[in-house]
User: What shape does this take?
Amino acid sequence: MIKKNIHKSKFVSQLVRFTNVHVYKPMSLTEGVEPKYGLTLLIPKNDKKEVKRFNEVFQCVKNENLVFFKGCKKILGGLRDGDTEIDSPEFSGYYFLNVSSPETPGVIDEDLCPIFNPDEVYNGCYGRASLTFYPFTAKGSYGIAAHLHNLQKLKDGERFSDILIHDELNPEE
Assistant: This one.
């Protein structure tokens, strides 16, 4: 559930890697939960500038929503550590963030032309993501989630398989 009078922050990433790509057909890992479009963004740990930008937007949303988070002991969200949370070589050396949307995101190539072929945007390619970060509450927990708007594929990368990440929370859009 999203409360009224909350502050959101729009954000466009720099070059990140895509995995768990479900931007042409929605999916759900939890029975009874409405399927959503989405993917996991992999942010290289050595890209200090991009990691800082992500952390700053999370802190901004937190600071702008102090009333919403009043009394919370723990606020969920933020970049997660692929080296400690996921047992997979594809996540090694990356932070990761799951992003989703109930609506189909726009997907374009580096020349800003729409990509209609789902085989062109795959697990392992690189690009940018347009997001909105917002506070949420679900199942008694509070956090900051990311709504996916658009993707821009910028370059190919080595393909790898889905490593589906089940979040304990699935905030309602």
Notes: The longest helix spans residues 48-64. The radius of gyration is 16 Å.
